[in-house]
Design brief:
By secondary structure, this protein is of the alpha/beta class. The protein is built from 7 helices and 12 strands. Strands 6-5-7-8-4-9-10-11 form an 8-stranded mixed β-sheet, sandwiched between helices. Strands 1-12 form a two-stranded parallel ribbon. The longest helix is centred in the middle third of the chain and has 22 residues.
């Protein structure tokens, strides 16, 4: 398999499907595989991988929300022209508000589009609805620092979206430096369709993410390398290398072009 290289010269276009391409061979359709988990320590390539996923959703014309309780890299997306500042949350109140808004959007979609038998077997794709996605970085930091009442409310919204969001097209992409039991109880973890562990971890860490630490290890020092499982496609942890950004590739500039509508529609 080959890793994807993002460069300034690549073709820029919207896509007319809901597929996220991770490597030359690995891809998945968010209408079938919902939500994601990415775990990786500093220097593992986690931020670049999350940025590549943000671009993938931008190409789908998704409504993107950012929750960054550490006020770190993802919070800087508030400077992206076209991305509403209300879609960026750093304080506990802002983050809880975003979770509530997306949960309300999900419930509204169910009420409007999935309330009679004609919707049987259909998803948001059949109604031409854009995906809605929350990128929630360092969930553990939020759970540990926010007021207990707020944490309880936020958990309800987060778990509701994770359990019910796929059909309505509402997704959560969780990322953290190390797996934590505050979020990754078994029932929730199993609903996260694309799970990724970047860098080197302990067996307990792999077990918490994948529910197993019994797989073939490939000792790699490549930044952005790790293991992945995708529900229904890759059923045991498999080595892969995340997309790579060339030196000439400007992530912010690229994202702004999509929000500005300067990208031509795909003919495919």
């Amino acid at each position: 398999d080959k890793r994807l290289i993002f460069s300034k010269s690549q073709n820029k276009k919207y896509i007319n499907n809901t597929v996220i391409q991770l490597t030359e061979k690995i891809q998945y359709d968010v209408s079938k595989v919902s939500h994601g988990l990415t775990v990786g320590s500093t220097g593992s390539g986690k931020t670049m991988f999350i940025n590549s996923k943000i671009l993938a959703y931008a190409k789908m014309k998704a409504d993107i929300f950012i929750c960054d309780p550490k006020n770190a890299d993802l919070s800087l997306l508030k400077y992206v022209e076209g991305l509403p500042k209300s879609h960026i949350g750093v304080s506990p109140d802002q983050i809880c508000k975003i979770l509530r808004l997306v949960n309300d959007e999900m419930e509204g979609r169910y009420e409007q589009y999935f309330s009679d038998k004609s919707a049987f077997g259909k998803t948001f794709v059949d109604f031409d609805l854009p995906p809605v996605v929350i990128f929630f970085d360092e969930v553990t930091a939020f759970m540990k620092t926010a007021d207990k009442k707020l944490v309880s409310e936020a958990k309800e919204y987060l778990y509701s979206i994770i359990m019910k969001g796929r059909q309505a097209g509402c997704f959560v992409e969780i990322s953290m430096q190390r797996p934590g039991t505050e979020v990754l109880d078994g029932a929730i973890r199993d609903q996260l369709g694309c799970r990724v562990a970047l860098g080197k971890m302990s067996k307990d860490g792999y077990r918490m993410i994948f529910d197993t630490a019994d797989f073939n290890y490939y000792d790699s020092n490549v930044v952005g390398s790790g293991y992945i499982i995708i529900a229904g496609q890759i059923i045991e942890p498999t080595y892969f290398e995340t997309p790579f950004f060339d030196d000439d590739f400007d992530f912010i500039e690229e994202l702004e072009e999509y929000y500005a509508g300067n990208i031509f529609e795909s003919d495919e």
